[in-house]
Amino acid sequence: MFGVAWSSYSPAIHVTSASDPVVAVDYPASWGNPAGTLQLHLSADVDGAPGTDGEVLVIDGEIVHNFWQFKRLSAVKATSQSYAATNLLTGDGWGRAAPFRGAGIVAAGASQLAGLLVQAETDRGEIEHALQIAVDAAYAKPGRTGAAISSDGGNRHGLVREGQRLGIPAAVRMPRGLSPLGQKVFRTYQRYGVFVIDVAEGVTNLRAQSNAYDEATIAALQIDLGRISRLLQRVKKP
């Protein structure tokens, strides 16, 4: 089963503003970071996404902060059960294996912003980079490959590892009748591919910014992905 995560299990993107209250976000040691508290300007609507992951992305200057199981407790207090961050200008979206440091909270250690469908970008034109998918746990092999620094794949009979790059061969023709966004995703799968960065239960999902797009656009993309995701093949060099 193929689809797109949007209304749940996909992060919203929030940009800090000096006019918003300062929120103290407590988090434990995770992804190579010691436990600590971040002080961030967050608007009242910043909270974890629906679903057990409760993820959220916060952009503060050049840094994108990635929280897992983020919970807003009050106007000035929040907690997160896991945290990692990366620099938007100097980072590549991946973490580091040595010394171990995650760029985000997904299984591969990558930033959730890297490869996310972002409306401001897709409205502007083509997607000029690889995308990310969470692969069905039934197909996720143990171990990691490529730039992934961690993995939670557990099926030794699976097909791919976290960090694996997939793509649609250039010779494959685009299916007819795709939505405008589905056409962009198809072209991106051919030009840049998609990286496996996480696992999901019972579905292989592309992820889209949850506080953007509209239901009609996502519903059309959901249908499109059922047609085009099955065309993906492993790329020899991840």
Share in β-strands: 25-35%
Portion of residues within helices: 10-25%
How many domain modules? Answer: 2
Query: How many whole angstroms does the radius of gyration measure?
Result: 17 Å
Cα distance spanning the termini: 23 Å
What is the count of β-strands?
A: 18
Average pLDDT, rounded to a whole number, is: 97
Shape: globular
Question: Largest beta sheet, briefly?
Answer: 6 strands, mixed
Q: What class do helices, strands and sheet pairing give?
A: alpha/beta
> In sequence order, what are the helices and strands, one letter per element?
EEEEEEEEEEEHEEEEHEEHE
State the oligomer: single chain
Detail the poorly predicted runs.
Answer: none
Strand order of the largest sheet: 1-17-12-16-15-18
Total DSSP helices: 3
What does the model show?
The structure is a single chain. By secondary structure, the protein is α/β, with parallel strands linked by helices. A 6-stranded mixed sheet has the order 1-17-12-16-15-18. Strands 2-5-6-9 form a 4-stranded mixed sheet, with no helix packed on it. Strands 4-3-8-7 form a 4-stranded mixed sheet, with no helix packed on it. The two termini are 23 Å apart. 45% of the residues are buried. The mean pLDDT is 97.
Short précis:
The chain contains 3 helices and 18 strands. With 238 residues, the protein is of the alpha/beta class.
Descriptive key words:
alpha/beta; 3 helices; six-stranded mixed β-sheet; single chain; 18 strands; 238 residues; four-stranded mixed β-sheet
